[in-house]
Amino acid sequence: MADVDEVTRAVLTASRVLVGVSARSLAATEDKVTLPQFRLLIALSAHHDANLSRVAEVLGVNPSTAMRMIERLTAAGLTERYPKPDNRRESLIRLTGDGQRIVDEVTARRREDIAAIVSRMDPVQGQALVDALTAFAHAADEPAAPSTGPDAYPLGWTDDTTR
Fold first, then answer.
1. Over 80: is that where the pLDDT of 145 sits?
2. How far is residue 107's CA from residue 113's CA, in Å, rounded to a whole number?
3. 30: which of 99, 104, 107, 156 lies 20 to 30 Å off by Cα?
């Protein structure tokens, strides 16, 4: 195996590419959402409705920060709050159609940009990249994503957000 510093440098370089792809895809939303707000939209898209505490936990922020994000996204028509069916004192948050559309569009742009980059690679290097990234994700305890369906491109949130 390569030296740990060499691998770390390669991963950091590749992460700059991926951050650039992510930033460009999000910039196309015409400043409708910030990166932290987009993370909230992704979490709701992947796991559907959630209460405020769970949103804050998933995002790693204080509930007051999560509430401000939700209020801004709700004012923009991207999320909505509604009473939890079995406990009307508690609210759940979900994406609106416009919120899901932003998630779908940004994700599609990211997929296209990444596919364009990968298509320029030699097929043997492409397979080596698959093997390396799979090992990297495994070392980080990230479960493999399914190859098709709505959960084919999760962004690191793997448990139920409706607690």
1. no
2. 10
3. 156
